[in-house]
Amino acid sequence: MQAIQSLYPHRADNAAxxxxxxxxxxxxxxxxxxLEAADALLPGxxxxxxxxxxxxPLLDALATRGLYTSAVTLPGGTARVLIRRRDxxxxxxx
Length: 94
Fold this sequence. Notes:
The protein is an alpha+beta fold. The chain has helices spanning 29-39, 56-64; strands at 10-11, 18-21, 45-51, 68-73, 79-84.
């Protein structure tokens, strides 16, 4: 598991987004933790998550929240998902 500081997203400027490695967690933990990180994003912030497989239910949930996502499948079937809140959005549920 990543260090606790990686749970906090970074601003979407020149700094790389925080990355959460959720691949070793049992279901449904990867989705729950990814959604928690996404909901904590402030305008312009982003986070990357590594998941055990391409997370279609997560991508659907993030789209419902109005968040930008980009997903790629990695060797071995795991996936990397970039989640970003637009600059003009507030936190989810605000």
